[in-house]
Amino acid sequence: MKNKISTEQLVIMGFMIALSVVLSKLISINISFLRIGFGFLPIAIVAIMYGPVWAGAAYALADLIGAFLFPTGPFNPGFTLSAALTGIIFGMVLYKKKVTFARALIASALVALIVNLLINTWWLTFILGKGYTVLLASRAVKELVSIPVMALLILAMDRTVVKAFRERSGTVSQ
Predict the structure, then answer these.
(1) Cβ(50)–Cβ(9) under 8 Å?
(2) pLDDT digits (tens, 9 = 90+) for 29-58
(3) What is the helix (H) or strand (E) element at residue 4, kind and residue range?
């Protein structure tokens, strides 16, 4: 991580945070305790371009902004921690590396299984008052299906959006 961030990087991250809020809160599908959203995509872009620290901070900030602007239930800071962990995982797996389907699949699997399935299910037990294993079983299929979908979307974003940002700023594509 660089000590200094350029104005361009700050603007790009601000845009990605705003886009993450919109994709998470306004363009997501909410079904009881299941949410299908695409807010991870802008954060994956931040992770690929700027690394785990910036991606973790960006997703935590996006979660806080989204929770206060568009509340969907009681605020639980655990989800903000989960968001930060998601950005960190994406950054650790994708930053300064060639983004291949296999690498995107690994990042997606780690996020879907560790953060979304295990940790977020734990947070939901406090909100919904249901047992962990009951929630875990009902959420497992959605998370398993989401892994290849997330991976394909991350790969597509790297091939299009990240490539465009790098070409515009004059940095060499990985």
Answers:
(1) yes
(2) 766 656 678 999 999 999 999 999 999 999
(3) none
pTM of the model: 0.88
Q: Identity (one letter) of the amino acid at 100?
A: T
Residue bearing tokens 């797996």: 93
Burial class (CB in 10 A: 0-12, 13-18, 19+), 67: buried
Asked if 9 and 169 count as a contact pair (C-beta separation under 8 A), the reply is no
Which residues does residue 35 pair with via DSSP β-bridges, in sequence order?
A: 30
CB-based contact 20:43 (threshold 8 Å): yes
User: 159: how many CB neighbours lie within 10 A of its CB?
Assistant: 12
Tokens found for residue 128: 């919904």
Domains of the chain, each with CATH number or no CATH? 7-168 (1.10.1760.20)
